[in-house]
Amino acid sequence: MSTPDSGRPPAATPEQIRALRAALRRRLDLIADHAFRDRDPVAHLAALRSASEAIDQLKPHFAGDPRLNHFLEGASYSKALAWIGED
């Protein structure tokens, strides 16, 4: 863990890691839910946006991990989930 004077962000907490894992799973599940998309495209898009916003809110906590940050910035959510582990 870094100190406030190190210039690097502190490591993410276990709670933040769990939250990111859940948000990534949610986003991936929504992407795969073609029945939902076909049944209600407007609601599906809103759910996708909500899931993406949850991920975006968590991103700053992981700025100290360049590889994870790369996956998140590139929307490589499966790779990001694999990187942090399935729990």
Characterise the protein shown here.
This protein is 68% helix and 0% strand. The chain has one domain (13-84). The chain contains five helices and no strands. The two termini are 21 Å apart. With 87 residues, the chain is mainly alpha-helical. Helix 1 (14-32) runs antiparallel to helix 3, helix 1 packs antiparallel against helix 5 (77-84) and helix 4 runs antiparallel to helix 5 (77-84). Mean pLDDT is 88; it is low at 1-8.
Would you summarize the structure shown here?
With about 90 residues, the chain is mostly helical. It is built from five helices and no strands.
Please specify the SSE layout and strand pairing.
Elements lengths: L13 H19 L1 H6 L1 H18 L7 H8 L3 H8 L3
Helix pairs in contact: 1-3, 1-5, 4-5
